[in-house]
Amino acid sequence: MGVRLMVVDDHRLLAEALASALKLRGHRVLAAAAPAAGAAELVIARAPEVCLLGTATPAEPGIFDPVVKIKRERPQVAVLVLGPVPSPRGIAAAFAAGASGYVRHDERIEGVERAIMKARAGEAAVAPQLLQGAFSELLNPVAQPDDEGQRLLQMLTPREVEVLVRVADGEDTRLIAAGMGIAPSTARTHVQRVLMKLGVGSRLEAAALAARTGLLDRAGPLNNSAGPEA
């Protein structure tokens, strides 16, 4: 039985070619192309079983924000990221955002179809060689001269780190205030400071940035030494 799916990519020719190939194999393609800025809204409105979401820059900050939004609004939709050969960090960021898998742009149609079927079945869909690269980096990490997570963490006070952790856990202003024993207005001020320091415009973006950079992993042991209290 064919899969009800969408192909969303900035490159219309690529999207339409892939959509046509998938239609020939018996799948029901709802849409072939859309600007990245409107990708999430289109997928949320159509609610396919699987979405192939194209990206040209898997390492760019915020690139997987549409995945986060889709999974928040339509958790039943399996999202497959379609892109170039990624870094292990790119794969990790895609999965952290909620993607079900990663498919290379140059993958054969048979490979794309296998990934689609795995994603619909609730399985992780990523080529073994890409996983091997990710595991290799995890087991043998290379020292990074510019550790973005550490840099961002040093910008926050201990209280702001706690606020960020709570934001990432999905707490609203009322819950943050209650959990920290502060007034809602104070909690709201802390949230705004965190957003400003991280250079993001929403709580969702802050949570995604923290996950991508590993900031949350460091927040626990460093929560009492992240910087002077504000």
From TrEMBL:
- In its keyword annotation, does this UniProt entry include Protein biosynthesis? no
**Response regulatory domain mapped to chain residues:** 4-120
**Superkingdom of origin organism:** Bacteria
Q: Which residues form the HTH luxR-type domain?
A: 149-214
Q: Which UniProt keywords apply?
A: DNA-binding, Transcription, Transcription regulation
Pfam families xrefs: GerE, Response_reg
Q: What is this protein called?
A: LuxR C-terminal-related transcriptional regulator
- The record lists the organism as Streptomyces hokutonensis
